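User: My collaborator sent over this chain with a note saying "see what the structure looks like." That's all I know about it. Can you take a look?
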Amino acid sequence: MELICSLVLNPHRKYYNALKETMGTIYEDVFWPQDAVFLERNSRDFIPRIHRVNTNAETVCTLLLSSPRVKRVFYPKHNPSRHYYDPFRTSEGGYGGLLSVVFHDDEHAIWFYDAIETAKGPSLGTNFTLTSPYTILAHYGELEWAKQFGVERGLVRISVGLEDKETLSRVFGKALEAIEEKVKEKENGKE
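Assistant: Without extra context I'll predict from the sequence alone. Here is the result:
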């Protein structure tokens, strides 16, 4: 896995000289020139893309929040901690494309995840929507440990992409409907 990082040192800060000296001894430029070309090319339309991602994420949040099966949606716009986020948001900025959802029942999270017709994986920042069972992937061997910090087993993380809002509404609506169908089947003894 390649990690692309950036570091900016402020020459007016207390630790500038020490950090500058350390960076001079440990930094190794392994950045592939072709990657720089693609990063520049992809940055050209970043602003309209991120606006679309913000709009799409809000659409997905609204849909998830409308479901009685959803316990909580973690998204800056809908969180009690929003007042910490807003002062740092630009006037044109949104709340990003990353959100997480927790259902009242872990079984509902499984049914939702199985039914959701998005790409599945833990990556972020793709142009298409990705869904992953975050807690299971990140803390599989330490679920009880994560639980003590409020990280629920059935948490599903969503990185929203550039699809049109109607497609996302349909895809997420169908996944929520799948939960209702499974609940009915279970109540009728078919499962």
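A starting point for your reply to your collaborator: Helices lie at 16-26, 33-43, 46-65, 82-85, 106-115, 134-139, 143-147, 165-187.
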